[in-house]
Design a protein that fits this description.
28% helix; disordered N terminus; five-stranded mixed β-sheet; alpha+beta; binds coenzyme A
Length: 280
């Protein structure tokens, strides 16, 4: 049976997930071109990094966010400004109903952008009514290390499910949990104000995942949808306000910052079932 895909009548996809590769900035011209997209404060922050690879990660991630925002709303990349909430989550200005969240590892930068029309939102909506998103990316090579950190960051329910798996499957589950938890606190934008062990991602049959929260946590678990995927030896988790319904497109900016390529075909479902969850 064909999967059902909501279509945004305006032709603006609900969500765009973007990839970029900090290694592209080993070319000084590419690094300079990315820096030219940033504002003064971002360029100053980039200049303060001691190691080139950290500077490249930062430049790539911040240039990608501006490119991705400009793809969703007609404003040149250099002209975006950000308002930052009390916990550090940026929202783009001018207010256009677009929301984004970014994450990076040494080799991969990602950015998830939601567009207003797809969520039924409009410019007249107050900012707090605009649907939020959160993303996280981690290199698969970190999975064993995350198993060792599990007791410090995972809830009782998550640890119980992790322990019930065969040992060979635990790193895979652990990196899924880590990225989901991180993407969730980033979607909510409250950082570690939300204790990591006060909420649980519970894996059910048919590779479905659901959120459970401790009593006292101010949350309606049905508010969010959760997605896991792999790209370029990384695990990615996306947490998306359930109000966002419409097409997901996956794009790549490679080489940065000029070549933009769509990776998904029109009409593809949001995500294939993450078969890797069942594999060691
Ligand atoms: C601050 C935080 C966003 C950390 O992010 P991180 O893993 O270091 O970095 P990421 O690459 O995923 O994301 C950073 C980006 O998220 C955005 N961000 C910053 N604060 C944010 C917040 N409160 N909410 C959402 N997004 C935020 C910014 O765009 C930031 O980019 P910048 O630092 O270059 O400006 C926060 O989630 C945190 O401290 N998490 C705790 C880490 C932890 O213990 N994780 C265990 C998971 S089980």
């Amino acid at each position: 049976m064909e999967p059902e895909i909501d279509r945004n009548p305006a032709g603006n996809p609900a969500l765009r997930l973007w990839y970029a590769y900090p290694g592209d900035l080993a070319d000084p011209a590419a690094a300079e071109a990315c820096a030219a997209l940033l504002n003064e404060a971002e360029r100053a922050r980039a200049a303060r990094f001691h190691f080139d690879r950290h500077r490249r990660e930062y430049l790539a991630t911040h240039a990608l966010a501006r490119i991705a925002l400009s793809h969703a709303h007609p404003l040149p990349p250099q002209e975006w400004r950000y308002s930052v909430n009390a916990y550090g989550k940026p929202s783009p200005l001018p207010e256009s109903g677009v929301r984004f969240n970014q994450s990076n590892s040494t080799e991969l930068a990602i950015c998830l952008v939601s567009s207003p029309s797809a969520a039924g939102a409009s410019r007249s909506l107050p900012p707090e009514a605009v649907p939020e998103v959160g993303v996280d990316v981690e290199a698969l090579s970190r999975a064993e290390e995350i198993v060792r950190l599990a007791p410090d960051v995972f809830s009782g329910a998550e640890l119980k499910q992790l322990d019930e798996l065969p040992a060979v499957s635990r790193p895979n589950r652990a990196i899924s949990l880590w990225t989901l938890k991180e993407a969730y606190i980033k979607a909510r934008g409250v950082g570690l104000l939300l204790p990591l062990r006060a909420f649980s991602f519970v894996f059910g049959d048919a590779q479905k995942v659901r959120l459970e929260v401790e009593p006292g946590v101010d949350e309606d678990p049905d508010r969010w949808r959760f997605f896991l995927l792999n790209h370029a030896s990384h695990r990615i988790a996306m947490v998306v306000d359930a109000a966002v319904s419409g097409e997901l497109q996956v794009w790549e900016a490679h080489p940065l910052p000029t070549v933009l390529k769509r990776l998904t075909n029109p009409g593809e479902p949001w995500f294939p079932v993450p078969a890797f969850e069942n594999r060691p």
